[in-house]
Specification:
The structure holds 3 protein chains of 3 kinds.
Chain A (H helix, E strand, L loop, with lengths): L1 E2 L3 E7 L2 E7 L5 H8 L18 E4 L2 E4 L12 E3 L8 H8 L9 H14 L5 H8 L10 H10 L6
Parallel strand pairs in A: 2-6
Antiparallel strand pairs in A: 2-3, 4-5, 4-6
Helix pairs in contact in A: 2-5
Chain B lengths: L6 E3 L4 H13 L4 E4 L3 H8 L7 E4 L9 E4 L2 E5 L4 H7 L3 H7 L5 H4 L4 H6 L8 H5 L3 E7 L2 E6 H4 E2 L1 E2 L6 E8 H4 L3 E6 L10 E7 L4 E6 L6 E2 L2 H4 L6 H11 L12 H22 L1
Parallel strand pairs in B: 1-3, 2-3
Antiparallel strand pairs in B: 4-5, 5-10, 6-7, 6-10, 8-9, 11-12, 12-13, 13-14
Helix pairs in contact in B: 3-4, 11-12
Chain C lengths: L13 H6 L13 E8 L5 E7 L1 H4 L4 E5 L22 E2 L5 E7 L2 H8 L3 E6 L6 H5 L28 E9 L2 H7 L2 E9 L11 E6 L5 E5 L4 H12 L6 E5 L14 H10 L5 E5 L2 H7 L5 E10 L5 E13 L5 H10 L9 E10 L13 H19 L3 H8 L15 H4 L2 H11 L7 E3 L4 E12 L8 E8 L5 E5 L8 H13 L6 E3 L3 E2 L14 H28 L6 E4 L2 E4 L2 E7 L7 E2 L5 E2 L5 E6 L20 E12 L5 E11 L6 H20 L29 E7 L21 H13 L10 H10 L1
Parallel strand pairs in C: 1-12, 10-11, 14-15, 19-20, 29-30
Antiparallel strand pairs in C: 1-5, 2-4, 2-6, 3-5, 7-15, 8-13, 9-10, 9-12, 11-21, 13-14, 16-17, 17-28, 18-19, 18-27, 22-23, 23-24, 25-26, 28-29
Classes of the chains: A alpha+beta, B alpha+beta, C alpha+beta.
């Protein structure tokens, strides 16, 4: 594959193939937000430190600010907009898992992936996964309660 | 947002990748091999590096291998830290790379990228430095296998246009008793103040650290395994010997790092003592 | 009707925030859009010899490059000392020098890289000490010539002091004479950052008629309007400011900073939106940050521990510009005694320029900083007197009848019950088992405590308003000027309204964004004052609407209003509730059975302004800085490793007199968030400068905040002593969780490691160094 300048690629986002024009230098975050109007993934640092831009690529969390859009060709991308009434969304509401909401999409995606891959995750594993993201409003207790409320048994 | 444009190549074979790089050089381009891209993207954003083409190695089968076969653990350079840790054929390596950056980014960082990158810590190199390990490198003359110590001296020693294809670790070393400690300034998710790894075989303990100075270093095997020195003497001698390597930075001052290293060595000796 | 208060109420925008539907400034689609990027200083103090924008201007897609030459604006919320783009010299690392506007972000960023600036470096004032010494390098030569926007700012000629606030209370000589023990200490904490997850962002367009449209992530939409009008001489009515959801603010988005740059930029490309969003690095250093503080305190007390006198000096590192620092200086001075009764006080509080990034308001408004100094002193006094730290604090807590440092009389209503907070904290922390417990493997468990107090320190005319309209089902729409920055203010507002109108909170629909053209005025969403200010306005608006509805009902039911009552969207005759009429039949006026109609749609209007506040007198500091004080007590428990000097956070506890808890889970969340931020300041957050005044940790890679799992177990408890003039008695609590936490942590570590923690943040290396000194 060789892409130069403005290039047409196909990205599979939230179950749909989307044809988009990108430059190779565009990050996945940029393309999701600016080209596909999926603004649920947020830009917080563009340096991979905060996790606000986290999306799932083939069901694993990825910081979309540190992935080129062209790298995502051929993979399945899921954004917060693609969570259709996932239990983690309700769990965040019921457990007061957010205040300003800016980090929420990223946390939701990490928690959702965790629940899919490790439904019986213990504290160290939860910590390992969730330490990838920063929240400045809560003290994390609410997020802990939210994720633990869905971590048992069958998560769909 | 990366403030400059570049071309993207994704070759499907080693030869294609090597040739691609050479062709770009001939055309006065500034190509860069690309693995996980985390360091390249974040540095490009602040114009810490400049390039006009990237060659993504993730499409090359040899760069994606991950298996124990023929007496060796074979890790393709484009394998992610997460996959390597999940496979867990070399527990010391798993443990080390599970403390690089954070869990999400571990799914993007490749072992090749960590070894070849410009960020000085290169924690993934530590377990390789102290085990029987070799690197497969794509060179002008084709695929070459080099002892790790020859191809990596604090950083990867590759000629322009060469790229790391895979890491091969002798199966015998994979299950040796080990020790891993990472200390940071304060927070868990951070660059190391010092990360130390150690392996113990029937003959000797081998130890490597990073964060101490400019590059990962091996601590003197002679002193660590000296028959006549007691633990305290060993530690003093090691710290004295490494004194010129020690550098202060945002994580901690020189003196503090020496204090921390002293503690880490004590722990390491006592841990290995316990297992006999 | 069941009460709507004291019940966990899910925030109105909850669904939006878990689906990605909630839109923040930079999620808004505005078209046509151009992109503005900043070029910022690489020096902390330097003369600008030349700025060459020729190559940048010629880059593809570039529409304009703007420098200080292109405008005459000078900003400053109290002292107009800050050119939005550096003029003649730069005073801090990261200061904006030019703006590039281009068709896309990549082009703008690329062109910004082509700007050439020739600097002549000047000596750098790299600390408060250097700024304060004799014959210092002067950062603002024209200090005394700057326009003041308020009388309450007192710069000192020939110095780097942009404000000096004095407190003189009682008789110092007498105080020292009555003191049997004197303790002294000096403390410092570095500048740090708000680090809201959303970096500041603005969209701005100049319309064909020169009116200005601004969409911004701000806590102060009305002040944006007023300031832009003042700075750029544009009639206020021509400026419309919209604020959608704000991704965290913590005081940092109260400063009018990116908006001015955005307007200046948009003026060069009229008719097109420009997008100006900070990178994280810009948000940390270019935009304003959290203060640094140096404090020296001397306390005199009787052997019993009773404090008789205190002498205090605080110097705020305000950085290169003053912004709201003089007001923070005032706030620290006004509450310099903490919640303690100190009969004789001399306090000098300075706001001092340095060549560091400039500061603005931050959660706690300075209290989180000076409380660290004061509460360390309380523990030092406890050690000196041998009185238990809890007992010492209890002994000295203010009571009704005492005078604050600014000589306001303390009452139960205006100050609440600090004693009760402290007593409850003592039980929560199991103080009886001891404060320092030696455990196995070289570990020590230790506890530290701190009290807290804070008032609002608003301008004396801070005001709010609210408008209610009705839907034909009788439900209410609420519009008020509070921006939704995280603490759930819009939901609290809905609860207050529902309670007053005796309807269910689900029958209140809240306008979540703010548009200054239509949304009724609010001073700012700051100072933990929104519940109070907006709440009072809402109560008045509800009264207004209810009275209109009652009058209509009186006609409809042919019954005098005094015989009517209301509940659940219904007005009924008290002595015969079967005679009733629903709100829905009144909200558009009343239609008689023959079709005749009477009165139009009901609109409830309410407004409120802070009453009885006065400025502080220049010489004595006497005056009334707030309507009420929120008090509380906090504790931190840690596990310290005596060998490695590392520590783990085990527990953090807060008991606050909240007056009335309106939304318990939300209140608890806000307090926990404050504690977590306080732990960040205590453990790891600081700006590190090199010798040239360059900030070295401008990204989250090196600027470290608390992450998931590093947080301790939290305990939050509320005392409820109503503040009589507040909506249902509710006091401000949004900032307070942070205030005593750095102090409590420092006290715990001092005790654990047998050191004297006199600075923040407390890293293992710091503890190790302090231990070496012993």
């Amino acid at each position: 594959m060789h892409l130069s300048g403005n290039s047409i690629i196909v990205l599979n986002v939230n179950g749909e193939d989307k044809t988009v024009m990108v430059k190779p230098a565009y990050t996945l975050l940029h393309v999701l937000r600016e080209e596909l109007s999926l603004t649920g993934a947020k830009s917080g640092c563009e340096n991979g430190d905060c996790g606000a831009c986290t999306v799932l690529v083939d069901d694993m969390p990825v910081k979309s600010c540190l992935m080129l859009a062209v790298e995502a060709v051929g993979h399945r991308i899921t954004t917060v907009e693609g969570l259709k009434n996932a239990p983690i969304q309700d769990a965040f509401i019921k457990n007061w898992g957010f205040q300003c909401g800016y980090c929420t999409s990223g946390f939701l995606m990490v928690c959702h992936a965790l629940a899919m891959h490790k439904p019986d995750a213990d504290d160290p594993i939860i910590e390992e996964w969730l330490q990838s993201n920063l929240c400045r409003c809560t003290g994390y207790e609410e997020i802990e309660n939210a994720v633990k409320s869905i971590l048992s048994g069958n998560y769909k | 947002m990366i403030p400059f444009d570049f071309d993207y190549y994704k070759p499907e074979s080693m030869d294609e990748a090597f040739k691609c790089y050479q062709d770009l050089l001939i055309n006065n381009k500034k190509p860069l091999y690309y693995g996980g891209g985390t360091e390249i993207i974040s540095m490009a954003r602040v114009k810490g590096i400049v390039f006009d083409s990237v060659i993504d190695l993730k499409g090359i089968p040899e760069c994606s291998q991950l298996e124990v076969s023929g007496g060796k653990f074979r890790i393709g350079a484009a394998q992610t830290l997460t996959n390597i840790a999940e496979c867990n054929a070399y527990p010391l390596l798993s443990k080390t790379i599970k403390r690089i950056a954070d869990h999400t980014i571990q799914g993007k960082i490749t072992i090749g990228g960590n070894l070849a990158g410009t960020i000085k810590y290169r924690e993934a190199a530590l377990p390789l430095m102290i085990s029987d390990c070799s690197l497969q490198v794509m060179t002008q003359g084709g695929l070459a296998e080099l002892p790790f110590s020859k191809a990596f001296n604090g950083k990867l020693q590759l000629k322009k246009g060469e790229f790391l294809v895979s890491v091969l670790i002798e199966e015998n070393d994979l299950s040796l008793p080990y020790n891993h400690v990472k200390r940071t300034k304060q927070e868990k998710i951070d660059y190391p103040l010092i990360t130390m790894v150690a392996l113990k075989n029937e003959k000797a303990i081998k130890t490597a650290i990073t964060g101490y100075g400019d590059n990962p270093i091996i601590l003197s095997e002679r002193i660590i395994n000296h028959k006549l020195y007691n633990v305290e003497q060993k530690i003093n001698k090691i710290i004295n010997l490494a004194h010129s390597d020690c550098k202060g930075d945002l994580s901690g001052s020189r003196e503090y790092k020496e204090f921390v290293l002293e503690n880490m060595l004590q722990e390491m000796f006592s841990n290995f003592e316990k297992i006999g | 009707m069941e009460t709507q208060l004291g019940k966990d109420t899910i925030r109105k925008e909850a669904k939006d925030k878990v689906t990605g539907a909630a839109q923040y400034t930079n999620d808004l689609t505005d078209s046509p859009m151009l992109y503005a990027r900043l070029f910022t200083s690489v020096h902390a103090h330097a003369q600008i010899i030349s700025v060459d924008t020729r190559e940048a201007s010629a880059m593809p897609g570039v529409r304009a490059v703007i420098t200080a030459k292109d405008h005459q604006v000078i900003c400053g919320s109290m002292l107009q000392d800050r050119p939005p783009l550096a003029r003649d010299k730069v005073r801090y690392y990261g200061e904006p020098i030019a703006i590039v506007i281009a068709d896309d972000e990549m082009q703008a960023k690329a062109a910004a890289g082509k700007i050439l600036v020739e600097y002549k470096p000047l000596p750098v004032v790299n600390s408060v000490k250097e700024a304060f010494k004799k014959n210092p390098v002067i950062i603002h030569d024209s200090l005394m010539l700057y326009t003041k926007s308020t009388k309450e700012v007192y710069p000192v000629k020939g110095t780097n002091i942009c404000h000096h606030q004095k407190i003189r209370k009682g008789d110092m000589q007498k105080g020292w004479l009555e003191s049997e023990i004197v303790v002294e200490g000096s403390f410092s904490l570095p500048q740090s950052d708000h680090a809201a997850m959303e970096t500041r962002a603005v969209h701005c367009m100049i319309m064909p008629d020169d009116s200005v449209r601004i969409k911004t992530s701000s806590q102060s939409p009305y002040e944006v309007k007023e300031s832009i009008s003042k700075y750029l001489n544009i009639p206020e009515g021509k400026i419309v400011v919209q604020v959608p959801f704000v991704g965290g603010a913590f005081g940092g988005k109260a400063c009018i900073q990116p908006e001015v740059l955005a307007v200046i930029a948009a003026m060069s490309v009229k008719g097109k939106w420009i997008n100006l969003a900070n990178t994280r690095e810009e948000d940390m250093v270019t935009s304003p940050c959290h203060l640094g503080l140096e404090g020296t305190i001397r306390i005199g007390a009787k052997k019993s521990g009773q404090i008789m006198a205190a002498e205090m000096t605080f110097q705020i590192d305000t950085g290169a510009y003053s912004d709201i620092s003089p007001k923070i200086t005032k706030a620290i001075a006004a509450e310099c005694a903490g919640p303690y009764r100190i009969p004789n006080i001399e306090c000098d509080c300075y706001s001092v320029y340095t060549n560091h990034p400039y500061i603005t308001s931050f959660r706690g408004f300075g209290h989180e900083a000076h409380t660290f100094c004061l509460e360390r002193m309380m523990d030092k006094l406890a050690v000196e007197t041998g009185v238990d730290p809890f007992q010492l604090r209890l002994l000295n807590l203010v009571k009704a009848g005492d005078l604050t440092p600014t000589q306001v009389k303390v009452t139960a209503s205006n100050t609440g019950n600090a004693v009760e907070c402290l007593e409850r904290l003592k039980a929560i922390m199991n103080w009886e088992e001891g404060a320092r417990i030696i455990e196995e493997n070289g570990l020590v468990r230790a506890k530290g405590i701190s009290c807290l107090i804070k008032t609002s320190d608003t301008p004396t005319d801070a005001g709010a308003s609210a408008v209610l309209t009705f839907n034909t089902d009788g439900s209410v729409n609420l519009d008020c000027g509070a921006t939704e920055i995280g603490p759930g203010m819009k939901t609290t507002a809905a609860q207050i309204l529902a309670e007053k109108m005796r309807i269910n909170v689900n029958d209140v629909y809240v306008k979540l964004d703010v548009n200054t053209q239509s949304t009724p005025y609010l001073w700012k969403t700051v100072a933990s004052m929104t519940t109070y200010l907006v709440g009072r306005a809402i109560l008045n608006a509800a009264d207004d609407a209810i009275s209109q509805l009652m009058n209509l009902a009186s006609i409809a039911l042919r019954c005098p209003t005094e015989e009517l009552d209301f509940e659940n969207k219904m007005i009924f005759v008290k002595h015969d509730p079967e005679l009733y009429i629903m709100f829905k039949d009144l909200v558009k006026g009343y239609k008689f059975s023959n079709g005749n109609s009477f009165k139009g749609p009901v609109i409830g209007r309410g407004s409120y302004v802070m009453g009885n506040l006065t400025p502080l007198a220049e010489a004595s500091g006497r005056g009334t800085p707030g309507r009420s004080w929120t008090v509380g007590a906090q504790a931190v428990e840690i596990e310290y490793d005596t060998r490695l000097h590392t520590y783990r956070l085990l527990k953090a506890a807060t008991v606050i007199d909240a007056g009335k808890v309106i939304n318990p889970k939300t209140a608890r969340g806000v307090v926990m968030g404050g504690m977590c931020m306080g732990l960040g300041l205590g453990t790891s957050e600081d700006f590190v400068y090199n010798e040239d005044g360059i900030v070295e940790d401008t990204s989250f890679r090196t600027y470290k905040m608390i992450r998931y799992g590093e947080n301790p177990e939290y305990v939050v408890d509320f005392v409820e002593t109503p503040q009589i003039d507040a909506p249902y008695g509710a006091r401000g609590i949004a900032e307070h969780g942070i205030i005593g936490i750095p102090a409590a942590l420092a006290n715990a570590i001092s005790l654990a490691a047998h050191i004297d923690v006199n600075r923040l943040p407390i890293t293992p290396e710091f503890i190790w160094r302090e231990r070496l000194k012993r």
